[in-house]
Amino acid sequence: MLLKIIPSMSADPLKGDTQSCQNKSEEDFPKSSPFDFVIKQFQGKRSSSGKRKEQPSAIEKFFSGFDFGKSEGKERQKIEETEINNCSADDQSEKENLSVEDESSQLISEAESPSGEQRFNQFMQKLGKKPNSKNLDLNNCALSAADVTELASLLPFLPELEEIGLSWNGCVGGTLKTLTAQFHHVNLLKVLRLNNCRLSAEDVTSLGEAFEIVPQLEELDLSWNSNIGGKLSLLTKKLRKGCKIKLLKITDCNLTAKDGESLAEILNVLPNLEVLDLSINKHIGCSMKVIAQDLKNVPGLKELNLHMCGLKQDSLQGLDTALQHLTALRKLDISCNKEIGGGFKDSAAHLASLKNLEVLDLHQCCVTEEDTTVLSQVIPLLSSLQELNLSWNKNIGVSSDPLLGRLRFLPKLKSVAISNCGLGKESFSSLAEAALHLPELEILDLSWNKCVGGNLKLLLGALKLATEIQVLRLSSCNLVAEDLALLTLLSHDGHLARLQKLDLSYNNTISDEGWMVFCQGLAIFKELSELDVSLRPSSCRACGTWFSELLAALTKLPALAELGMQRWVLSESQRKQLEGFNQDNKRNIRFDC
């Protein structure tokens, strides 16, 4: 009987263990057999580690022929391994489910977060700017350092960006490295404007390091960053041969003579340079001879601006030598270099070779009578010249050489500025005769030449022929009533029809009658946008009865946007009329009183 009972007993405990692993309740277990205690006693006996194995007892020997412990143990081991494997599988399945859930949560989170394009649009809208993925115009936006950092994080989403304008944002200084570190995302960048950004030496260094990752850069404007002075080499030494820069502006950056030498060294790696602006750097004149020697490396140069660069006579000589290599030059500005006066007599030989020159600015250069003699021979040979500024060179008006008269050989002239040139009646007559041959004239500035007053009739013929004239400046010319009557007559006859800006300021010599006649005919100038009738500083005068005629004319001048009336004393009623004019007539004229 014992042999029949034992196999069934051996199955129940295994079954019970399996069900326990499956988390069944206790009442599902079968009740213990009477032999369980005996079997457990034999199974529970183990030889302890490090102890001698005990000899089997008689009962153990009796049961040794049966496979209670071994088969049961093997079965238990298999079941335990199976259960462990099943549990591991369950754990792995649970981890996979959690992983899927995490991925789903991440996808949902990403779907809910704004895209790069949306972030860029939000950033631009915050600054009141219209989003443009190719042209980033953030000039004068009061950017903070945080804004610059945010902008840097957005560059990876602007792969087509070609222009960046950050000018007039002082907080860009000291943070530029954050931005340039992301320039590899915008390697199509062609234009970078950083005017007045308070750039530091570190900014200049980081900008130089960025040149390699923006190989398409064509325009770089660093003007009005005074801290660049003395540190330009940090930028120039990073430029490599084949650089595509076409425009380089470094206006008013406090450049030193050493900076000038650094600039000269890199001209040979800027073969595409077309515009070089070094204006308002008073100390760079000392190195101008060195710069001039290397200008031959930029034969395609079209604009050279050396306004207020501290040039001297020897600088002018070096520049003149360089001009023979700059046949493509269209604009030359060497104005406000007073120490070059007297140097033209030895340094103007190659100026005449600039057959493509369209703009020549020589104002305030202290030109001497000898210089005028040379210029009267050279300037008329500049057959493409369209703009000429000789203002604030008083010897031009007193010279016996017919420089102004020879302007007749420049029929393409559109702008002539001869302000404060000490004109006498003879030189003014020469100019008036030459003006008859300038049919394309658009701008004429004769301000601060006292001889014009009472002699404006000499220009009558020229003003009749100058159908394109848009700007006429006659400030401080000692004009009289007769001169204003002439202007009115011209307008009535259909001349000066395109006049947009008229400057009659600082002519205290005009009587109230003269202003009355002028105001009565003022409505004829339909395209007039700016009019200045201000009096001289430190003077004042009561506004006469012509004021009502002036207001009446303004209602018929739809383009007028600005009226200068400084130092005219208005009565209480006149002031109220002026203050209510815009509202009463639905206009937006700026009254400068």
UniProtKB/TrEMBL annotation:
Protein name per UniProt: Leucine rich repeat containing 31
InterPro entries noted in UniProt: Leu-rich_rpt (IPR001611), LRC31 (IPR042419), LRR_dom_sf (IPR032675)
Pfam family, one: LRR_6
Region (Disordered) location: 1-34, 87-115
